[in-house]
Write a structure and sequence with these properties.
Layout: H1 2-16, H2 27-53, H3 56-64, H4 68-96, H5 102-119, H6 121-135, H7 140-169, H8 180-204, E1 209-212, E2 215-218, H9 222-246, H10 253-270, H11 278-287, H12 293-336
Antiparallel strand pairs: 1-2
């Protein structure tokens, strides 16, 4: 199915002339892949090294010790986060003006997010969006704008939340951590400034549209920019809440959220589907001096089950329903004739 999805995406991008080619920089893709491979191997080595020292019986015991109330609360927060993410595609619907029903847009957004989490952004975030939206008649240009707005919304909220956490939360870093608290604060200030600059540009700029490589880029209005910021920032904070609950409040929320935000970027750099091993490695490195590694691993395994695997199982059912619905609509149109 992934190959078919990717083929559909490539076809849609060709028709819409979307996609940016790095002319004169043929070395860049190879260097990027090599860097990602080195990073992945380093993470894999770190995880393997820690895995040898983990008492897995203690991990399973910690998992069995979770109360039903803790699991239900974490599951509710996970569901809330997935619902918030669907709002990104609803923003795209508003900005592009397409007429697909909101419930269908929500179904597509949920499906793509679940696939994105588990199979990577190329399959879930990009290819599956192109396939599903194209199946219901959207042009490649509109799909590209929806995708761009979704990515922008996600990282806008990330910048704002990570900036405030790094700037004001005072994360307790492991002894000998080279970046140090001052370095994190400077990084936090830069991230908050980037988020504020985007919202200010949308609010104050007199020029609303630019053309880049033949594609028109239009700034959202100030209310839409504010909505992007609030929606995404809330989503990131809710995701942090899922892990915090599963750690049973043993560590302050701001530290858990900060480590999760660092792990999110590490996962993007590593290009590992689902951030497999990357998330665990970052949490172990940054928090194992404060809480036993067995409890960290147990919480992250529960987090993966509730936030990644259960939504993926539901998304597979939604994907089948969307595909069936699209085929039914095409048959009805063929019967109706021109």
């Amino acid at each position: 199915m992934a190959a078919e999805v990717l083929a559909t995406a490539r076809s849609a991008r060709r028709r819409g002339s979307a996609g940016v080619r790095l002319r004169g920089r043929s070395w860049y893709p190879g260097a990027k892949r090599a860097l990602a491979l080195v990073f992945f191997l380093a993470v894999l080595g770190l995880v393997a090294n820690h895995a040898r020292t983990i008492e897995w019986d203690s991990v399973w015991a910690a998992l069995r010790a979770y109360s039903i109330d803790t699991v239900l609360l974490a599951a509710g927060l996970a569901a809330a986060s997935h619902a918030l993410y669907c709002g990104y595609d609803l923003i795209g619907r508003h900005e592009t003006g397409h007429r697909l029903p909101a419930r269908r847009v929500v179904a597509i957004g949920f499906t793509c997010y679940a696939f994105n989490l588990n199979l990577g952004s190329l399959v879930g975030g990009v290819a599956l969006r192109y396939r599903l939206y194209a199946r219901f008649g959207l042009r490649a240009e509109s799909i590209t704008k929806i995708l761009a707005l979704s990515v922008l919304t996600n990282w806008l909220g990330y910048s704002f939340v990570a900036g405030w956490v790094f700037l004001f939360a005072g994360l307790i870093l492991p002894p000998g951590w080279e970046l140090g608290s001052d370095g994190l604060r400077w990084l936090g200030a830069a991230l908050v400034f980037a988020a504020a600059a985007y919202v200010s540009l949308c609010s104050l700029s007199t020029r609303r549209e630019w053309t880049v490589r033949g594609h028109a880029l239009r700034l959202p209005s100030a209310p839409i920019a504010a909505l992007q910021l609030v929606l995404s920032a809330t989503n990131w904070m809710v995701i942090g809440g899922v892990v915090w609950v599963l750690l049973q409040y043993r560590i302050e929320y701001a530290s858990v959220l900060g480590v999760l935000l660092i792990a999110a970027v590490a996962g993007v750099v590593a290009h590992v589907p689902a951030g497999l091993g990357v998330l665990e490695a970052v949490f172990i490195v940054l928090l194992s001096h404060r809480i036993p590694a067995t409890e960290l691993i147990a919480a992250l395994l529960a987090y993966r089950a509730l936030y990644y695997l259960m939504p993926l199982a539901l998304a597979l059912c939604v994907f089948i329903a969307l595909e069936t619905g699209a085929k039914r609509e095409r048959r009805m149109l063929a019967i109706a004739g021109p």
